[in-house]
Design goal:
Layout (H helix, E strand, L loop, with lengths): L4 H24 L16 H8 L7 E3 L5 H6 L4 H8 L33 H15 L5 E6 L6 H13 L3 E7 L2 E2 L2 E2 H4 L5 H6 L5 E5 L3 H19 L2 E6 L19 H9 L1 H11 L5 H24 L17
Parallel strand pairs: 1-2, 2-3, 3-7, 6-7
Antiparallel strand pairs: 4-5
Helix pairs in contact: 1-2, 1-12, 2-9, 4-12, 5-6
Length: about 325
């Protein structure tokens, strides 16, 4: 499906927002002002944006512990997300979620999740709700190569097929489950065939190409929205930083990250594709870069100056009151 100019500009802006948000956190994390672990999504932007540009505000996603990119792609407010990561009162979760638990129900973001593979069964529930309500909605869970081995994911795929719910399983293989290479940690030689064995179609994509991801996601989402039951997408991508901030990545080959940054980067590829085809002007893309950098800078300044949650509110929002 051919995207129009405004759609391509929006997609580029979303990818740039994710990239600069994460690159800045990589710098800020060294100051010691950010509590807890931080897992960055740099390098995988094409996947999050390629999927979420096909979704409506009323559709749901649930992320992983590497969740900033998914949340931004689904419409998470960047200044509020920065506040949340700094543990501030005005963060999306009032400073209580932090990096691994950002959520925004109004935007259809059911949250990042620190438990590997835990998002898929939750998303099956959201998809079942959409089916019961007959509102045309879908639910997406993002799944890494490590989570592809989890029993919760297997059970969720089976249940989604049995109940025939509008659920998308978005697999993004970045090559490493924490510190373990996918070639070693995954027994099945073909993840796609393993997914198909549960009884759903799989649409494959190139994780370094936004347009490839967008098309695969479109096909899977259209399939699920049409009442056919669940579908999956699968592709290979990479992350530029470690499993967590502070991970020296000694398990990666020398020069591997540099090769990906210079030869396969999804942002560079997007710029080249649209400029070579004269679909967008490079000056427009540069303008977006400038705008995004200013937004990130202001978000950091505001977050550092913002107050933390008042101590007396520590017990609020722990349990739901009916």
């Amino acid at each position: 499906m051919q995207l129009n100019r405004s759609e391509m500009l929006r997609a580029y802006r979303q990818m740039r927002l994710i990239r600069e948000f994460e690159e800045r956190l990589h710098i800020e994390n060294r100051t010691g002002e950010i509590a807890g672990f931080t897992h960055l999504y740099s390098g995988q932007e094409a996947v999050a944006v390629g999927v979420c540009e096909n979704l409506n505000k009323s559709d749901f996603i649930i992320s992983t512990h590497r969740g900033h990119g998914h949340c931004i792609a689904k419409g998470g407010d960047v200044p509020s997300m920065m506040m949340e990561i700094y543990g501030r009162r005005d963060g999306l979760c009032k400073g209580r979620g932090g990096s691994m638990h950002i959520a925004d129900i109004e935007q259809g973001i059911l949250g990042a999740n620190g438990i590997v593979g835990a998002g898929s069964p939750i998303a099956v529930g959201a998809a079942l709700a959409a089916k019961i309500k007959k509102n045309g909605g879908v639910a997406v869970s993002f799944i890494g190569d490590g989570a592809s081995n989890q029993g919760t994911v297997f059970e969720a795929m089976n249940m989604a097929v049995v109940l025939k719910v509008p659920k998308i399983f978005a697999f993004e293989n970045n090559g490493y489950s924490e510190h373990t290479g996918a070639h070693y940690g995954i027994g099945a030689p073909d993840i796609v065939q393993r997914i198909k064995s549960f009884g759903m179609p799989v649409f494959e994509y190139d994780g370094f190409d936004f347009f490839s991801v967008h098309e695969a996601a479109r096909q899977a989402i259209d399939y699920a929205r049409s009442g056919n039951g669940p579908a999956a997408i699968y592709g290979v991508t990479t992350r530029y930083f470690g499993h967590f901030e502070g991970d020296p990545q000694n398990y990666r080959a020398k020069g591997e990250v540099e090769m990906f940054r210079t030869e396969k980067d999804c942002m560079l590829r997007f710029r080249k594709m649209v400029s070579d085809a004269q679909l967008l002007d490079v000056a427009e893309l540069d303008g977006i870069d400038t705008e995004v950098l200013a937004l990130i800078e202001q978000s950091v300044v505001n977050a550092k100056a913002a107050p933390p949650p008042p101590p007396e509110t520590v017990t609020q929002d722990v349990y739901v009151s009916y």
